[in-house]
Design goal:
This protein has about 210 residues and is mainly beta. The chain is built from four helices and 16 strands. The strands form three sheets. Strands 2, 4, 5, 8, 9, 12, 13, 14 and 15 form a nine-stranded mixed sheet that branches. The protein has a five-stranded antiparallel sheet with strand order 3-1-10-11-16, with no helix packed on it. The protein has a two-stranded antiparallel ribbon with strand order 6-7.
Length: about 210
Amino acid sequence: MCNLYRMTKGTQEVARMFAVEPDLSANYGAEVYPGYPGLVIAEGRARAMTWGFPLVMKGRQGQPLKPKPVTNAREDKLTTPFWRESFVARRCLVPVSQWAEAEGEKGRMTRTWYGLPDHDVFAVAGLWRRSVEWGDVYTVVMVDGHPQMAEVHDRMPLILSHAAQRYWLEGTPEDALALCQTWEDAITVEQTPERWAGGGCEPEQTLLF
């Protein structure tokens, strides 16, 4: 997932899908980019958070720089210090309509969109926490890529079936780790002529821990 996805439904509709309370003040775009708000299911509510855990950066002279949003968490890194506390105590669901990958020659990349057949919205696994920099923030958990996208990217979001969602939210860390598997069923692939420029970053620039 290279830092771009779609969420095309409103807060109330998504809240009904996931049987949670809607935060009617939630504000997010139909296309979600790093550092911008996205809709998240956490603590029994559908609410907006900023996409990306802030990574504190320093310049060559040690001066503080603007933090970078870390939007993706590898499943094999969830118990490392950067993610551990959120993985243990603050797992969430991220409603997604489609996610995008950059495809093609560097500098001329286009957007290819992936989703699930017959699903306007599905849930991917996430983590969240509170931050000084941007308030409540979230990240998306990544696993090995699906065979249908093998030529484009080797990672994809951790898609959760309806049955798996409760275990991700309420289960033990061991339960959650057991869910970290590549989606086995078919996915949809929509290649487009849309230029990737302006849609996040190219793969080699993605911050993925």
